[in-house]
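User: quick one, fold this
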Amino acid sequence: MKRWKWLGLFAAFALVLAACSPADTGGTTTTGAGPGTTEGPTGTTAPPGGMAGEGGELLLLQWQAVSQIVSYLSTGTKDLLAGSLVLEPLAEVAPDGSLVPALAEAIPSKSDGSIAEDDTSITWTLKEGLLWADGSPVTADDAVFTWEYCSNPDTGCSQDMSTVASVVAVDERTIQITWTTPQPYPFTIFTTFQQPIIQRAQFADCVGSAAQGCTEQNFAPVGTGPYMVTELRPEDTVTYAYNPNYRGVPDGKPFFGTVTIKGGGDAEASARSVLEIDEADYGWNLQVAPEILGPMEQAGNGVVKVGFTANVEHLNLNHTNNRNPDNPSEFLDGTNPHPIFFLNGDLARALSMAINREEMAAVGYGPAGVPTCTLWPVPGEAADSLDWCLTHDPDGANALLDELGYVDTDDDGIRETPDGLPLEFDLVTSTNAVRQTEQDLIARDWEAIGVAVNNRNEDASLFFDGTCAADACIWKFFTDIQMYTNGASLPDALGYFSGFKTSEIPSPETNWGGGNPTHYSSPEFDAAWDQLSVTALDDPARVGLVKSLQELVVNDGAIVPLIHRASVSAFGNDIQGVGDLNAWDSEYWNIEEWSRG
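Assistant:
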């Protein structure tokens, strides 16, 4: 995966979950191409609006295959991306971090009165004449319904809307969002591909516990975007046809008549398909060793694009007891702590000191990754106090473990805790050549300090599956340590760090829905986050609070940051109109502008 975001990617960014139900992963749903066409995805019937849809097929490779489409039931970036061709928010984040209107007419501001002076409300106006793909009008009431859908706790919504007191349709095009408390950063609802507007008419019977059973809606939502789903084969392929009711059709957008997102394989195979073999137009998330990716690009068939935001490859140290056979990794109001990792910042510091990040970046990332000691490597806001981790210091790590009383009492090369528990852990990540190399490097570095690690990897489609149908999903966290990347979907730290609040810990009661896959709980962190949530954007104290949140999650031993990662994707040389790679939002955010030339 965020989709970190957690990605993000991310990320997401950022990264966090949906509910678990086999109904979301079984079977195949097929729909027609929708009103305004006479055929399905073949595109043989000339679409309205001149050149719209006449560009043939666009083939996109997402080696982490798509599970479902509705953004609110997943935080896996792979699913969010697939949904972003269909479902749209009020505003998107551009590659430079600025907000741009999508369904909204303009970005609200205090200067025009659409943001309350006391930060308690924000008012959005929809573009005029917006239509759903079925030809019905988009209204402010659809936004009201989206909030009703997601704020119902039984829906298992991946997005936290607990700060919203109400969403009101002032008129057909005007949406007023009122907050429970002042929101200094008021663009957290209905922005980016994580929070699109969904149609009341289609999802009216899918609120609450019924949400997971709405397979047809979840696999083929009616949207406002440039494309419509024609077929979804979970963990395999999604096909789309252009949306004849898309607002850009009169201007010839989108260019491509059909889109296919093909899953499976791995990052290296995707890169090869675009850059060497020239059989695909786009390859996503190319976590491929630089000595392999570079020669592929030199073949001359495609180009690699990178984009840095706040995506960080990191280790999660489980703070709940995954070894409890009755309630593995359940928080249980704090009564089920991990026997070694729970708030054990000193052990996490030793583990971190032993890792050679410079070598990891050079071997695995090249120019697409740099060592980092924080989860928020944003200029001016990164916590410099954590930079001690940049020094590879196995001697210091050994000395710290000795000081803590972690010694090898039986001469097997593995230290034990004072209680006799061996420092031997299971580390799981997604199946990916770069990540397996990272695991090998970590195992070597930790062996040098008397810590054993059992490396495992899971298919990415299961590891980042927002439906959490398999025990491998990151939100269940049934191992000691996880490794992946996530990041923020907005250039504001508040939303990202909400993913470490106690209230966001996933559990069986929420169908493993929640934004805190580390299962970290700290009253001090929760209080600091609450304070940040009411601190104005121009208050000098805000940066200090952002830094303190970073320091807490690292110093409490919840996270071991590793590499500040760029998003890396490949495009065929003949794909035009992409612009800069968007690492803040969906990489497909402007797919209606893409063409072949």
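User: anything notable?
Assistant: The chain has two domains: 22-264, 308-568.
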